[in-house]
Amino acid sequence: MAVLRAKELTKIYQAGKVSVHALNGISVSIGKGSFTAVIGKSGSGKTTLLNVLSGLEIPDSGTVHLGAVELTGLKDRKMAALRRKKIGFVFQKFYLIPEFTVWENIFIPFYLDDKNPDMDYVEFLLKEMHMWERKDFFPGELSGGEQQRAAIVRALANRPEILFADEPTGNLDVKNSEEVLALFQKLQRQIGQTVVMVTHDLDIARRADRIICLEDGKIVSDTEEENECES
Ligand SMILES: Nc1ncnc2c1ncn2[C@@H]1O[C@H](COP(=O)(O)OP(=O)(O)OP(=O)(O)O)[C@@H](O)[C@H]1O
Fold first, then answer.
1. What residue stretches are annotated with the ABC transporter domain (predicted)?
2. How many CB atoms sit inside 10 A of residue 154's CB?
3. How many CA atoms lie within 13 A of 218 on its CB side?
């Protein structure tokens, strides 16, 4: 069963007189409970694809459906609310809010929706990421790996229908990267968490069960096994 379906996505950036076709007719369907890696050379469109699939950016043409809802038709406020409730996003640069503690960063989306988080699940995630002891720290008091682990808890706390991660291990050392990938795999197994992750690294991509390779804004391969993709 597909949790997300995208059809014929195009995105053209205009930089001065140059037009860049960042997405060039991409159609893709993401199965519930699947773990997908998106790889490809620098500039192939990976981040643009993730941003469009997650509603952060609007495509020039094409559609994205999350379940029955067409993201591409939503206005800003509805999109923001839907993203808070149903979509998790992990960025390479973490983007924690520096004035708030880890705990507060995790809870902000819930405050905005006047909802209470599942405390047991948040505690489980913080402990899995070895961040329970650091929950009252401010981002500036944490290492890069700790900040990313906190950002991952924030992204997963509402049990999103789909988690997008853009180079989530790009700024992490081997040990931290391993913990992040192990958590994604554990959640996939235990609660059927759907994950779509961009990476440059074929070894990291191999941890997923599907590898989509992009070139010049197009999918050039989409496999469950070894992949000839240049990344
Ligand atoms: N805001 C923008 N304005 C103009 N061009 C852009 C913009 N964002 C991306 N591009 C261009 O679109 C293309 C795809 O960019 P994108 O960031 O999606 O690639 P990527 O595969 O994620 O690259 P990397 O691996 O280097 O992060 C690139 O050629 C890039 O220069």
1. 4-231
2. 24
3. 4
Rounded Cα–Cα distance for residues 139 and 90 (Å)? 15
Closest Cα to atom 1 of ligand 1: 13
Name the residue among 210, 207, 205, 196 with its Cα closest to residue 230.
Answer: 205
> 105-137 pLDDT, tens per residue?
999 989 988 999 999 999 999 999 999 999 999
> Which of 9, 41, 48 best tests ligand 1's pocket when mutated (most atoms within 8 Å of CB)?
48
The label of the residue with tokens 């509603």 reads: 55
Give residues with Cβ within 8 angstroms of 182, minimum separation 6: none
- Token representation of residue 67: 């379940």
Strand pairing report for 210-215 and 35-40: parallel
- In whole angstroms, give the CA distance from residue 184 to residue 178: 10
| Distance between Cα 112 and ligand 1 center (Å) | 31
Residue 40 β-bridge partners: 214
**Domains, the chain, ranges and CATH?**
2-223 (3.40.50.300)
Structure tokens at 187: 């959640």
